[in-house]
Write a structure and sequence with these properties.
- Keywords: ATP-binding, DNA-binding, Helicase, Hydrolase, Isomerase, Nucleotide-binding.
- Residues 6-292 form the UvrD-like helicase ATP-binding domain.
- Its EC number is 5.6.2.4.
- Residues 671-709 have a biased composition (Polar residues).
- With 764 residues, this protein is α/β, with parallel strands linked by helices.
- Helices cover 45% and strands 15% of the residues.
- It has 28 helices and 22 strands.
- The strands form 5 sheets. The protein has a 7-stranded parallel β-sheet with strand order 11-12-10-13-14-9-17. It has a 6-stranded parallel β-sheet with strand order 3-2-6-7-1-8, sandwiched between helices. The protein has a 5-stranded antiparallel β-sheet with strand order 21-20-19-18-22, with no helix packed on it.
- Helix 10 (193-206) packs across helix 11 and helix 15 packs across helix 16.
- The radius of gyration is 29 Å and the shape is globular.
- The N and C termini lie far apart (60 Å).
- The chain binds adenosine-5'-triphosphate and magnesium ion.
- Adenosine-5'-triphosphate (ATP) binds next to helix 2.
Length: 764
């Protein structure tokens, strides 16, 4: 048996062993919240609670998978029966079971953001509204915001405050668009992401028998990252926990970063009110186990500037660790090179793997410079988010076929595939079918069934052919598993052939991607964790992947992770680079309308810092292209706000690409070193004004380091290293073309360095 209890501190143990009744764990970053939740579930199961009766809600499906895996180590395969996943995936499952009660069928489609926007665009057009006024992103976010506050179309239209707000935004018809959008989704037997929560609330509100069933079923409800639940999610958990009152929520108010999407930090305060102050057990965890003292204290120095926060003091017994590097670059491309170079050096000097590194940025668009630079030094990376595998055109095309085979009411899938491969069906015909369907309040499939009444000639024949094809696919659904059906559809639809015939490099890549999707379906079917092997079950699992759940491209999993800070929530890495620390980028100009917004940006920065275990580095560029124009940038105020004692200006060279070594070293370091000094001065001035502690900024030696002067390096020689200072060579090893030296440094201890990269100066 795994002894997990002994690996817990006192308050952690208290939380794990807490019996019945509401429990709120409010704790700092890296203090073991997720660990406590994991072991609490294991502990409940060990004490006889049926895993089928435990509901655990996590931020990503991947986090759920990891948690399940850990629990499995303690309780065995029983762990597979826990209801565990994101709010969206768990409630999609419940909605499928209960679909009939709210007028859906269990094979409903899930519209992704592109589908939702495409439908909104059609509606704006059909209503004769101006698409420059009714920009699809604004319309979408207003509707999404309403759903997350549980405001349906009728309430929206009748709400005078909302109406006035829309009028002042010059979009008075949003309510009508919303109503039409909801109707069209319903006719398409489709739900968008927000509907999964909205409709769950409707289901539980209007069908008390169903609510009752789940209230009794779930004896324990757990919520990780509670600070980021929105009103709609909070209500669902409250309803579900109303009978047993066994609800355990875990969160950190300092890490609340989704207010812009309707997450409500007040939930933490409401929890005590809703369950009765005297009934709620509160556990505070304040000891951080993840990061060095430097990182924990630097993070504290940032978050203490926020006014809105609960009282807690995060500390750690871990070692002090290195200071936080601040890297200044002249441009975004140089920032890419410097960061790639720093990763390369740290990796070599400390014998680390790519997985030990993460680059975190504020927006996805920043990834490009880092991708290029990492490729140049042959370091593999993975991008989480951005244009994911499942957003690629060829993948969406095949998925649309699969979706339409499962649900013929799916209007967006229909629009995507009706003329793919080309069948001579024009956009006007497709739009006409949509409009007729909307007018008759029927689905597109009903119109297709009587197509000759509405469309004449060749187009009608082509549509009939398409309908026959879909019917033939549909027949397979009950007989074959997801993989067999999908392979058949890929071939019989003509999609695979079209890609196969395209012999360009891109065409080949697209063909391989489709094969890769089929592989993923095969894996799904073969995975013993999935008890349902149908195509519908597979589609549900992919449509609910969050950005952090992404599929990896090949078998090589040792990669540097690139992702937004939002996606990094809950994760940890030995080395973290927070990049783009510039005013208007981070804090983001788009988000800064009020003090509250600034505080949310600061919490986001806090989340970023607290991902790092050992080494943290922060960088900024002096110039950056923004919407195609070169912009001068100022360092972020967050750099100034941080307690300067923990910072170190880094004097780094450009990336160690072969070409760079042809240039004299001095050229490469000059711009960065003089620049650093001015930044240090400006930091010093600003901190003096704000009366923060005086900066203690350590500098790397200013000597001219020449990497090539080590050709005849031998044991016993004294050397100076740019970072580690003075030392004595103990041994030199030759391995193929690589030469390695073992050096005993006076301060830094023994290090093994690759001589082609180590910046060493022989001391005479
Ligand atoms: N008592 C403990 N002893 C040793 N290591 C611990 C202990 N508690 C937690 N840890 C380790 O500390 C790290 C952080 O834990 P965990 O991820 O559970 O923290 P968290 O509070 O959920 O963090 P976040 O706020 O980022 O979500 C993990 O590597 C975990 O294994
Ligand atoms: Mg966590």
């Amino acid at each position: 048996m795994v002894d997990y209890i002994s690996g817990l501190n006192e308050p952690q143990r208290e939380a794990v062993m807490h019996g019945d009744g509401p429990l709120m764990i409010i704790a700092g970053a890296g203090s073991g919240k997720t660990r406590v939740l994991t072991y609490r579930i294991a502990h409940l199961i060990e004490n006889g609670v049926d895993p089928f009766r435990i509901l655990s809600l996590t931020f990503t499906n991947k986090a759920a998978g990891e948690m399940r895996h850990r629990i499995e180590k303690v309780v065995g395969t029983e762990a597979r029966n826990i209801w565990m996943g994101t709010f969206h995936s768990v409630f999609a499952k419940i909605l499928r079971i209960e679909a009939k009660a709210i007028g859906y069928t269990s094979n409903f489609s899930i519209y992704d953001t592109d589908d939702s926007k495409s439908l909104l665009r059609s509606i704006v057009k059909e209503m004769g509204l101006d698409d420059k006024t009714y920009r699809v992103n604004s319309v979408f976010s207003r509707i999404s915001g309403a759903k997350n506050r549980l405001i349906g179309p009728d309430d929206y239209i009748n709400n005078s405050v909302i109406q006035a707000d829309d009028e002042s935004a010059r979009m008075p018809h949003i309510g009508r668009i919303y109503r039409q959008y909801a109707l069209r989704c319903f006719q398409a037997n489709a739900m968008d992401f927000d509907d999964l929560l909205f409709n769950t609330n409707v289901l539980f509100r209007d069908h008390l028998d169903i609510l009752n069933k789940y209230q009794h079923k779930f004896q324990h409800v757990m919520v990780d990252e509670f600070q980021d639940t929105n009103v709609s999610q909070y209500l669902i958990t409250r309803k579900l926990a109303a009978v047993h009152q066994n609800i355990c929520v875990v969160g950190d108010d300092a890490q609340s970063i989704y207010a812009f999407r309707g997450a409500n930090i007040e939930n933490i305060l409401n929890f005590q009110r809703d369950y009765g102050k005297e009934n709620v057990k509160i556990v505070k965890l304040e000891q951080n186990y993840r990061s060095t003292k430097t990182i924990v204290e630097a993070a504290n120095s940032i978050i203490s500037r926020n006014k809105h926060q609960l009282e807690k003091h995060v500390f750690t017994d871990n070692e002090a660790g290195p200071l936080i590097d601040v890297i200044k670059a002249s441009s975004d491309n140089e920032e890419g090179r410097l960061v790639a170079s720093a990763i390369f050096e740290t990796k070599m000097n400390e014998s680390l793997t790519n997985n030990d590194f993460a680059i975190l940025y504020r927006t996805n668009a920043q990834s490009r410079a880092f991708e290029e630079a990492l490729r140049k030094v042959s370091i593999k990376y993975r991008i989480i988010g951005g244009l994911s595998f499942y957003q690629r055109k060829e993948i969406k095309d095949l998925i649309a076929y699969l979706r339409f085979t499962v649900n013929q009411q799916d209007e967006e899938a229909f629009k995507r595939i009706i003329n793919l491969p080309k069948r001579g069906i024009g956009d006007t015909t497709v739009a006409k079918i949509s409009v007729i369907a909307a007018e008759k309040q029927d689905s597109v499939w009903e119109i297709v069934a009587e197509i000759s009444k509405h469309v004449a000639g060749r187009a009608a024949i082509a549509i009939e052919g398409f309908a026959d094809l879909i019917k033939s696919f549909k027949l397979l659904l009950d007989q074959k598993d997801a993989f067999d059906v999908a392979s058949h559809i890929a071939k019989a639809s003509g999609l695979l052939k079209e890609l196969y015939d395209d012999k360009t490099v891109e065409g080949l890549a697209r063909y391989e991607n489709v094969q890769e999707l089929l592989n993923a379906i095969k894996e799904f079917v073969d995975n013993p964790d999935n008890d349902e092997k149908s195509l519908g079950a597979f589609l549900q699992s992919v449509s609910l992947l969050t950005t952090a759940d992404e599929k990896e491209d090949d078998g090589d999993n040792d990669r540097v992770t690139l992702m937004t800070i939002h996606a990094a929530k809950g994760l940890e890495f030995k080395n973290v680079h927070i990049v783009g620390l510039e005013e208007d980028l981070f804090p983001s100009q788009m988000m800064l309308e009020s003090r509250n917004d600034l505080e949310e940006e600061r919490r986001l920065f806090y989340v970023a810092i607290t991902r790092a275990e050992k080494r943290l580095s922060m960088s900024y560029a002096e110039t950056r292209y923004h919407y195609g124009r070169l912009k001068m940038c100022e360092p972020s105020r967050f750099l100034m706000e941080m307690d300067q004692r923990y910072l170190k200006m880094s004097k780094l060279r450009s990336a160690p690409s072969r070409m760079d070594f042809d240039r004299p070293e001095r050229d490469r370091s000059e711009s960065t070193s003089s620049g650093s000094m001015s930044f240090v001065r400006s930091l010093a001035q600003k901190t003096a004004r704000s009366q923060a502690p005086q900066p203690i900024v350590s500098h790397t030696p200013s000597a001219d380091f020449t990497p090539t002067s080590t050709a005849d390096l031998a044991a016993g020689q004294r050397v100076e290293h740019a970072k580690f200072g003075f030392g004595t060579v103990k041994q030199v090893d030759v391995n193929g073309t690589e030469r390695k030296a073992t050096i005993q440094f006076e301060q830094a201890g023994e290090k093994v360095l690759l001589l082609s990269f180590a910046k060493l100066r022989v001391v005479q």
